[in-house]
Amino acid sequence: xxxxxxxxxxxxxxxxxxxxxxxxxxxxxxxxxxxxxxxxxxxxxxxxxxxxxxxxxxxxxxxxxxxxxxxxxxxxxxxxxxxxxxxxxxxxxxxxxxxxxxxxxxxxxxxxxxxxxxxxxxxxxxxxxxxxxxxxxxxxxxxxxxxxxxxxxxxxxxxxxxxxxxxxxxxxxxxxxxxxxxxxxxxxxxxxxxxxxxxxxxxxxxxxxxxxxxxxxxxxxxxxxxxxxxxxxxxxxxxxxxxxxxxxxxxxxxxxxxxxxxxxxxxxxxxxxxxxxxxxxxxxxxxxxxxxxxxxxxxxxxxxxxxxxxxxxxxxxxxxxxxxxxx
Length: 327
What we know:
The chain is α+β, with helices and mostly antiparallel strands. Helix content is 54%, strand content 13%.
């Protein structure tokens, strides 16, 4: 009852007993309370520290009770002073937090302007994806460029995907066509299909992107280097455009797991995309990155195209592309 004033239950029990029996010795108090003598002395020390007892000048040496009204008024005054100081500290903390919030808002970190928030820390981005994973209710739409994922990344993604699908969330992902050459990616695609997720592939993707419930989209600040940070978009007009882009690419993509329908000897979608990238002036290295393949694979694809179109050089390959209308 008096804990707010610093008095323990043991101290209060001894104090109440001393009110009823002010002349009892320590031994009598201990016997009545069924405590050890040391426990009673510890409670008496606490009462003395709170100035609820005063030293005795009698022969028995047992402390005497101070006037409760005076003693407790002192304790109440101390407690009130402590509460006042704590309230002042809270107000000071509130002012500091407000200043820090203003500094945070003034920087790009976490700032949201016109429905767009910028995150520069990879840790902040990971935390964001964890939060979005818990909040997703209807669907996720993803572009996943960059070629085959590592086995570790695929293993780490499975519990997250399972949790989403268990809640009835629709999961659709578009990978690069290059993942069709990776056995681990094929196995992962089969697993996704078994769980109820949908995956497709395209020779190239415009950027990395994830859309959650058509309410939030996350895209890289720099499409060529996702490590530079991410933009979190909640502006509905921009979201509508990104959703339309996803659906457009999805319709043109091939369901993962199906054998390519390109007849032998004809130009595949992936080869056609390589020609398109080279026609835009991209280097072999840049084109390989866009396709999610190694530089060696990209150059082998060029050799195959030269054979298919009867070209003896890259320059002649360009001519044959124009003549045949491949693009």
